[in-house]
């Protein structure tokens, strides 16, 4: 009788320990971090850029300064702009401000900009006609400039441990220091 109680006790302890181990492993899932510096370097590679507007003028965009909007889990980007061309008598300096969410693209292991919002496109001293044209052009400019822009590319070795644990990239969290990518279980059969 004592032997049977001892075996039941040992089995409970073992199963309880395994449950604790599973809970500990679930809490200790790996995460992957991308620093603010890495993000800024990646986005700077896309600039400077020139955008023609209706054959009348050109917009030149410089590399943006990124803002880490932790409360909204988004990144903001403010770019110095220059407007010049035959429709204008001189060059005008301005700023273009957008923000965007982030998504993971499994096909090429990239973190990309998505869900762009135009906050402002301003040029000091620009006459009303060209100013209205540029305001209307803002969303298209945002699409050309940043929609689906690659902000970071993960390497297969970055994903080796999570993949071996049956995990895949899931949620992307914006922090003051950069991004944190958490992992979730892969779908069954995936």
CATH superfamily of the domain at 47-148: Uncharacterised protein PF07273 family, DUF1439
Structural class: alpha+beta
What's the mean pLDDT score?
85
SS element count, helices: 4
Predict the CATH topology of the domain at 47-148: Bactericidal permeability-increasing protein, domain 1
Count of extended strands: 10
Envelope shape? elongated
Low-confidence stretches: 15-26
CATH class of the domain at 47-148: Alpha Beta
Described by its quaternary structure, the protein is single chain
What is the CATH architecture assignment of the domain at 47-148? Super Roll
Radius of gyration: 25 Å
Gap from first CA to last CA: 48 Å
| Largest beta-sheet characterization | 7 strands, antiparallel
Percentage of residues assigned to helices: 25-40%
Estimate the strand proportion: 35-45%
- Listing every helix as H and every strand as E from the N terminus to the C terminus, the arrangement reads HEHEEEEEEHEHEE
Protein name: DUF1439 domain-containing protein
């Amino acid at each position: 009788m004592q032997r049977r109680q001892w075996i039941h006790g040992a089995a409970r302890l073992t199963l309880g320990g395994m449950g604790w181990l599973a809970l500990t492993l679930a809490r200790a899932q790996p995460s992957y971090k991308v620093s603010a510096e890495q993000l800024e370097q990646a986005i700077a590679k896309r600039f400077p850029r020139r955008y023609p507007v209706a054959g009348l003028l050109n917009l030149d965009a410089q590399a943006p300064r990124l803002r880490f909007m932790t409360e909204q889990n988004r990144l903001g980007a403010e770019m110095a702009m220059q407007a010049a061309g035959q429709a204008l008598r001189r060059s005008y300096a301005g700023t273009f401000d957008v923000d965007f969410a982030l998504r993971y693209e499994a096909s090429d292991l990239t973190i990309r900009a998505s869900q762009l919002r135009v906050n402002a496109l301003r040029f000091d001293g620009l006459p009303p006609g060209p100013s209205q044209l540029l305001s209307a052009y803002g969303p298209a400019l945002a699409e050309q400039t940043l929609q689906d822009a690659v902000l970071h590319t993960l390497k297969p070795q970055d994903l080796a441990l999570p993949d071996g644990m049956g995990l895949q990239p899931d949620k992307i969290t914006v922090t003051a220091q950069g991004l944190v990518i958490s992992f979730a279980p892969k779908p069954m059969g995936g």
